[in-house]
Amino acid sequence: MSIKKDKLGSLHITDKGSKGMIRLSKSCLSRLEKESVAKVLDSEFLGMGSEVKKFEDDLTEFFGRPVLCVSTGTAALHLALQAIGLGKGDEVLVQSLTYVASFQAISATGAKAVACEVNLDNLCIDLDDAKTKLTKNTKAIMPVHYSGGVGDLYEVYLFAEKHGLRVIEDAAHAFGTKYNGEKVGSFGDITCFSFDGIKNITSGEGGAVLTNDKKVAQRLKDDRLLGVQKDTEMRYNGQRSWDFDVYNQGFRFHMSNINAAIGIEQLKKIDFFKRKRQEIAQHYIKNLKKIKYIDFLKIDFLEIIPHIFVVKTSKRDELKEYLAGNGIECGIHYKPNHLLSKYDFDITLPITEHIYSEILTLPCHTDLTTEEQNFVIDSIRKFYGC
Length: 386
Description:
Aspartate Aminotransferase, domain 1, Aspartate Aminotransferase, domain 2, 7-stranded mixed sheet, 3-stranded antiparallel sheet, about 35% helix, about 15% strand, globular
């Protein structure tokens, strides 16, 4: 793929095709991750072991509180919800505009996800709407940190404290984000991160749970290893438990040494990743803010690491099709869960449904070049005749 200017100064993409698309998101790796994985392969101990412990130790130092690594961000949410004793008949307040993983983690425990509206400014949970859906069965609230922003997290915790609710933060988008000067994950009840291939840092596949609740943490340690009691310590030392007991339903949700090796190297680059993603967001805003058809989320891009960059436009589908035709991959984050067949609650959420028709995610990843981003910007301007 190449991008060239014409005589009028407009940018044009050439040699388009699936391999030449400007990608919406991607894994951003170097030789260091590959060399670290190769060392694990050479060791021939690929499962959960010393590399997982090192990654957990590095993350614990980064956040200043205990971290447990698991196989995916979805597994992190599922295990956290199970560890607080959630089950059939219980309810969890969560915004509908989130990836289905949030809802699947709740329903996997037997509990019910109660779909709530989003705040139009930042697309985080609308706490006023959530308050109207509080019942005697409500046991937890799951604020989703959309795009890396966290909304009014302080008010969420005040609400939870008042009603005796646990808070499970779905921070899949928010690794590295700060709230009131503190890293998301370094405080609060339970925070869950994702390290899948396109997140702010990746371990290929992976996730993490952070909590100071020792009872929850111990159950998480066991349940990620099929409920086998205290098997974590054995695995860290390259050993297995042969004479053991099991008390709880567990799963094979542990992280592997291969994944941890990638994560260890990625964590070292977090400052660079943060700076680059923030620069991309600011460049979009600077160059698109005069287009009256485009609106932005009202979040502080100097405090967050934008996992995705979302704009709002009344011509979403037409713009998406136009950009795709010009070799630019875009996305829609996300289809509201109350519109999915599994979670059809026979309800309407007018704000969420309206915003779903307007949101479009533009390319945002640390390998995105300025030339590529300028081509995206130029293409949007041409679509709107600007």
